[in-house]
Amino acid sequence: SCSHMGGPLSQGAIEDGCVRCPWHGSVFRLQDGWNVRGPATAPQPAFDTRITDGHVEARLLGTEAAGTADPSHDPA
Ligand code: FES
Q1: Could you give the domains of the chain?
Q2: How far is 53 from 1, CA to CA, in rounded Å?
Q3: What burial letters (b/e) apply to 41-50, b meaning 16+ CB within 10 Å?
Q4: Closest to 25 (Cα-Cα) out of 49, 36, 65, 17
């Protein structure tokens, strides 16, 4: 849900690598959750994901255990 007032981002339009909230139009970058345009003033949480044995695994970005960080991941 949207960091502004809880709008349904899953129903938002996707364009240019961003999702637009259908309630008030805030725009968030899909790569890292950054709020590109308000009225939202806070980003969305972002997750690293992978598919293992047919299951989707997700981990909040920045929560890697010591020594397990993926050196190929560049959140910038
Ligand atoms: S609830 Fe998403 S922009 Fe307001």
Answers
A1: 1-65 (2.102.10.10)
A2: 28
A3: eeebebebee
A4: 36
What average pLDDT does the segment 2-15 reach? Answer: 96
23 or 64, greater pLDDT: 23
The Cβ of residue 9 has, within 10 Å, a number of other Cβ atoms equal to: 18
Q: Are 61 and 49 in contact (CB under 8 A)?
A: no
Tokens 């339009």 appear where?
13
Closest ligand 1 atom to residue 38 Cα is 3
Check if the beta carbon of residue 70 is closer than 8 Å to that of residue 64.
Answer: yes
- Our measurement of the distance from residue 60's CA atom to the centroid of its chain's CA atoms, rounded to an integer in Å, reads 9
Is 22 a pocket residue for ligand 1 (Cβ < 6 Å)? no
- What is the residue-averaged pLDDT of the chain? 87
With a 6 Å cutoff on the Cβ, whether 24 touches ligand 1 is yes
Tens of pLDDT, residues 58-68 = 998 877 665 55
